[in-house]
């Protein structure tokens, strides 16, 4: 006859093993749902994309982000993402998609980012319009950002869209 005191550790180990197997199965199921489906273009080369789309027409390879855009992502996330999206979605402030094209230029953007209040106070017509269009919510000043860092942020925003 088996002593119940000897059986207890064996049952506990068995429960632990069953729980581990169940967790592993759940992990496999989640991974299957999160993995991207293989496209016909990928299947041709064993998973590597081919230069043609399913229509047979050549396609351009996705452009890798520049080093400035990569650096700009971190600066954006640390300074801008609380109020702005890199896309078109408005958060507290406007989405930044196309910001280089819709503003008076990079020099203007540097002034705006460093101290939007001063630009508005100077009577700059576009600054006043942006301020009014966004509920007169004052943008935080980022006087410590360098020209290079601002360029990196803008490169990141461009590469995101």
TrEMBL record:
GO terms for molecular function: electron transfer activity; heme binding; metal ion binding. The chain crosses the membrane at residues 12-34. PROSITE patterns: CYTC (PS51007). Pfam families: Cytochrom_C. This is Cytochrome c class I. It comes from the Bacteria. Keywords: Electron transport, Heme, Iron, Membrane, Metal-binding, Transmembrane, Transmembrane helix, Transport. Residues 45-64 are annotated as: Disordered. The keyword Glycoprotein does not apply. SUPFAM superfamilies: Cytochrome c. Residues 67-161 form the Cytochrome c domain. It comes from Fibrella aestuarina BUZ 2. The keyword Magnesium does not apply. InterPro entries: Cyt_c-like_dom (IPR009056), Cyt_c-like_dom_sf (IPR036909), Cytochrome_c550/c551-like (IPR051811).
């Amino acid at each position: 006859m088996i002593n119940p005191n000897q059986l207890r550790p064996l049952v506990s180990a068995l429960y632990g093993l069953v729980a581990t197997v169940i967790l592993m199965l759940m992990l496999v199921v989640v991974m299957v749902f999160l993995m991207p489906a293989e496209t016909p273009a990928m299947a041709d080369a064993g998973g590597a994309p081919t230069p043609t789309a399913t229509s047979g027409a050549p396609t351009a390879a996705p452009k890798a982000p520049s080093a400035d855009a990569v650096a700009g992502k971190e600066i954006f996330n640390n300074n801008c993402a609380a109020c702005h999206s890199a896309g078109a979605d408005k958060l507290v402030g406007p989405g930044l998609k196309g910001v280089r094209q819709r503003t008076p230029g990079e020099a203007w953007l540097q002034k705006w980012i460093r101290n939007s209040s001063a630009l508005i106070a100077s009577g700059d017509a576009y600054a006043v319009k942006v301020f009014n269009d966004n509920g007169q919510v004052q943008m935080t000043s980022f006087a410590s950002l360098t020209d290079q860092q601002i360029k990196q942020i803008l490169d990141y925003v461009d590469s995101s869209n």
